[in-house]
Amino acid sequence: MPENEAGEALENLLHENRKFPPSTEFAANAVAKASLYEEAAADRLGFWAKQSRELLSWGKDFDQTLDWSEAPLAKWFVGGEINVAYNALDRHVEAGNGERVAIYWEGEPGDTREFTYAQLTEEVKKQRMPLKHLVWPKATG
């Protein structure tokens, strides 16, 4: 393909305007209803504070949802402490979903494997043990 045609093709891709609406069935089962978008638009910071408190487990609650004082650096959930591994795995096991599949894996030659929340939690705990004696610097920000 000549260089100018490649440039035109790339330019066309940068201005994609087609829309692909979801099926009626998919939209009916969606969690993100119009009311959720309206709530977010009415008070964005309040929306994210509420969502994060309802959907995540915090070790220490945050004092401020967003700090833009050092823009363009954004600091979200200032003062809060969260255990990412707990939120990604442990809380699902505690809620009775340990045998639910968390990851479907497919390798190059087509081999597949499923990992449940309970299996992943155990693997993370095994990998954590050799690191437990190390001192990690406290996160800033």
From TrEMBL:
**Name the record gives this protein:** Acetyl-coenzyme A synthetase
Which controlled-vocabulary keywords does the entry list? Ligase
Indicate the segments forming the Acetyl-coenzyme A synthetase N-terminal domain, all copies: 35-88
Task: Please give the biological process terms from Gene Ontology that the record holds.
Answer: acetyl-CoA biosynthetic process
Instruction: State if Ligase is listed as a keyword.
Output: yes
Q: Name one GO cellular component term.
A: cytosol
Against Pfam families, the record matches this protein to: ACAS_N (PF16177)
Q: Which PANTHER family does the entry link to?
A: ACETYL-COENZYME A SYNTHETASE (PTHR24095), ACETYL-COENZYME A SYNTHETASE 1 (PTHR24095:SF14)
Enzyme nomenclature, EC number:
6.2.1.1
Highest rank taxon of the organism: Bacteria
User: What are the recorded GO MF terms, alphabetically?
Assistant: acetate-CoA ligase activity
- Acyltransferase as a keyword of this entry, yes or no, is no
